[in-house]
Design goal:
heterodimer; A: mainly alpha; Rna Polymerase Sigma Factor, Chain: A; Arc Repressor Mutant, subunit A; disordered C terminus; B: alpha+beta; four-stranded antiparallel beta sheet; two-stranded antiparallel ribbon; 3 helices; extended
């Protein structure tokens, strides 16, 4: 779990460091809570850091939204609050939709795109033939599209 | 069906996922280095679970307790092996504070609600920053209170070649902002559990 603060720090730095270190500590704790609650669902099929990453992304985005809305009365506070990029929000929508896919389909999509594995590699990891892996991947991708089309921001609020 | 044969909206989605994956891998590489994927794969994890041969979706859900010894062991290992820039003074019989760092997860039933402890590198002591959340509260709600807890002093061998105590007993007071003790308990931190 040592990766959580490092991931958050790296992500924060990439978007211009809108959060201070103390605020990042809070985000890290919130992330840890989220990870802790979902730990039973971790199946070891992907790298632990990869699995944890989406929690970091979602928690960081939620904190940045709160950060943006918070009244800024402290002296020295930044003048222009950070506004989440559309891209970051879109990523968050997809992460949430991925969580709503059937487990095997979600795993396939993650392995394909986030771990950059080929279908034979995915098949080997999951004990499936490459063709079965490919079929399930396409099915998962279509379902993901439907989820995003039907209810893009419902889960985000 | 190849990606090129996919309907346009699926191709767009696949492109977005590729973009997410690229960002994710880049951040992970930046944050965790090339060792970020040490846990990748199922073989090692499954092997200790006695399920060698059962892979992937056939393996079933992984129980919560499975990762606890890994996390505890990693924390202890880091404490034991971390480079120390300044030699430790020989303590003799006087107790020394347990110096620690990294991240360690512990769980307890200390009220109210769920408690998570997370260790930060401390100045001569293992310090846990504690956040107690109301389990009924909505996600993102403010914690009921925050507190800091400290381990008691732990006698450690001056010679680092001698194995450190295992388990380590943590005697923890949970304090509120005013320093009032809300709860006290002992917690063993063991690499063997």
């Amino acid at each position: 779990m040592q990766c959580i603060p490092r991931i958050l720090s790296a992500k924060n730095a990439r978007i211009g460091s809108p959060l201070q270190p103390s605020e990042l500590d809070d985000v890290a704790q919130d992330t840890l809570v989220a990870v802790w609650k979902r730990l039973p669902s971790f199946r070891g099929l992907s790298a632990l850091e990869t699995w944890v990453y989406r929690f970091c992304h979602l928690t960081l985005l939620k904190s940045l939204e709160a950060h943006r809305r918070a009244p800024r009365t402290e002296q020295g506070a930044e003048e222009t609050p950070w506004v989440p990029e559309r891209r970051e929000e879109r990523f968050a929508e997809v992460y949430r939709a991925l969580d709503r896919l059937p487990e095997d389909e979600g795993e396939l999509v993650r392995l394909k795109h986030f771990e950059d594995l080929s279908f034979p590699e995915i098949g080997e990891r999951l004990g499936l033939s490459p063709n079965t892996a490919k079929t399930r991947y396409y099915r998962g991708l279509a379902r993901l599209r439907d989820l995003l089309r039907d209810n893009p921001l419902e889960e985000a609020r | 069906m190849s990606v090129d044969e996919l309907p346009e909206d699926l191709r767009e989605l696949a492109g977005l996922l590729d973009e997410m994956g690229a960002v994710e891998r880049e951040v992970l590489r930046e944050a965790c280095g090339d060792g970020a994927s040490e846990f990748r794969g199922t073989e090692g994890l499954r092997g200790t679970e006695g399920r060698t041969g059962e892979r992937g979706a056939r393996g079933g859900p992984r129980p919560l307790w499975y990762l606890l010894p890994l996390v505890a062991a990693a924390g202890l290992l880091w404490i034991a092996l971390r480079p120390d820039p300044t030699p430790d003074p020989v303590a003799g019989d006087s107790p020394r504070l347990l110096s620690g760092g990294g991240v360690t997860l512990l769980e307890t039933s200390a009220a109210p609600g769920e408690v998570l402890r997370w260790s930060f590198p401390g100045e001569g002591s293992l310090v846990f920053d504690v956040r107690v959340l109301d389990p009924e509260a909505r996600p993102g709600a403010a914690p009921l209170f925050r507190a800091r807890v400290r381990t008691r002093e732990v006698q450690l061998p001056a010679d680092r070649s001698v194995p450190w105590p295992d388990p380590i007993l943590l005697e923890i007071d949970v304090l509120d902002e005013g320093g009032r003790v809300l709860d006290s308990f002992e917690q063993e931190l063991s690499s063997r559990r």
